[in-house]
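Lay summary. Proteins are chains of building blocks that fold into shapes, and those shapes determine what they do. In this project we predict the shape from the chain. Here is one chain we studied, written as its sequence of building blocks.
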Amino acid sequence: MKFHPDRNPHDGGAEEKFKEAKEASEVLSDAQKRAAYDQFGHAGLEAASRGRGSAADAFGDIFGDVFGDIFGASRRGGRSQVFRGADLRFELDLDLNQAVFGKTVELEVPKLAECETCLGTGAAKGSSPSACDTCGGSGQVRMSQGFFQLQQTCPRCRGTGTVVRNPCDTCLGQGRVRRTRTLSVKVPAGVDTGDRIRLAGEGEAGRNGGPAGDLYVEVQVREHAIFERDGEHLSCEVPVSFATAALGGTVSVPTLDGEVTIKVPAETQSGRVFRLKDKGVKPVRGGARGDLFCRVVIETPVQLGAAQRELIRQLEESLRGDSERHAPRAQGFFEGVKRFFSGDSRS
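And here is the predicted shape, written in a compact code that computers can read:
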């Protein structure tokens, strides 16, 4: 009476307490509900209120609903279970050119396939599987342990609901055999390492009439001798001679579409990057084609003869007389070093 809604029209807390008191009264006045609450708390009370019989049966149903999937059994229905085939994974190694432009490849995939002799039933010709004697064809058995009733997969038929009394000679009653199948897979242009190609229904065959699994082809792109890939962009190092870098000239650069020529300006320094637009990769999921970034590396001459070394010494002597003009980066670097060790605050 204290918490009745009519006495507390604008008090939500009072309304909740009134509902709790009403529920408690209903439990105390019903012997079955009271027993369910005393043994199993609110879980048993909720099950008993749905009219499932005794408190033990009610809680047993709850236990089966929650844990039925763990044991591969279904609480509802008496038909046998079907099992989907397992998914398979296949690693496909590709060259960079194959990944960039796409390719159709042939794969040899070993897997469990449906037996062609018995068509997946596991029974010899002229016979068929019969209902399991243990579970009566339901694929499930119920066990009682005190107040608990546990429903789980039949240990004899493993949930199929049938047993093979006259097994097939080819698959020995399993309904599946291991075979190697050749598949033609079209690899789309632009794939990269980590991409997956899904082939629906090309996994292992299901059991008891279940659907086949899928085959996932995982792409691995091999390292390239020249190019490095970063998404849709490519990069490479371009060796340039000392004379070309100093005086300017042209240099040939390889691309995925063929060789191109780039112009190297005079006084080009090592590390300069030239961008070749649309010479990268077109992404597999769409979008503009990437670019090719060419990084200049000044190549120091090796295996010089005496005359060549003398010429370089003469060049060095002529440049040293006006180093601030001919080597500004070196001059600035050494000036910075001097300031650092002298404690000059400008460093």
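What the prediction tells us: Confidence is low (pLDDT under 50) at residues 52-79.
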